[in-house]
Amino acid sequence: xxxxxxxxxxxxxxxxxxxxxxxxxxxxxxxxxxxxxxxxxxxxxxxxxxxxxxxxxxxxxxxxxxxxxxxxxxxxxxxxxxxxxxxxxxxxxxxxxxxxxxxxxxxxxxxxxxxxxxx
Length: 119
Description:
CATH superfamily: Hypothetical protein PA1492
Structural class: alpha/beta
Oligomer: single chain
CATH topology: Rossmann fold
CATH architecture: 3-Layer(aba) Sandwich
Shape: elongated
Largest sheet: 4 strands, parallel
Strand order of the largest sheet: 2-1-3-4
């Protein structure tokens, strides 16, 4: 599953990149493919609008959005969550993502098969 990571940057020290990078590493270790806006926009002096254009172009290629803490305080993260919702993408708190996606799918299928119901 390919996830876009959304959260607050503006007004945070180092644009909150340390949290974005740490959560990206955690999600990748769980088996997710992660699009991290801190990796997309290397220029910390770039205009917000220019960053958002690049970020949204990547967001629409994803299966879902993983939200960081305090995302509701961010105009950009709220816009990203809105776009994802309107496009029918999965939107969840990043902290709720605890299992490898392929393992969860496998376990769900095995459980359904054991009950004789379609997975």
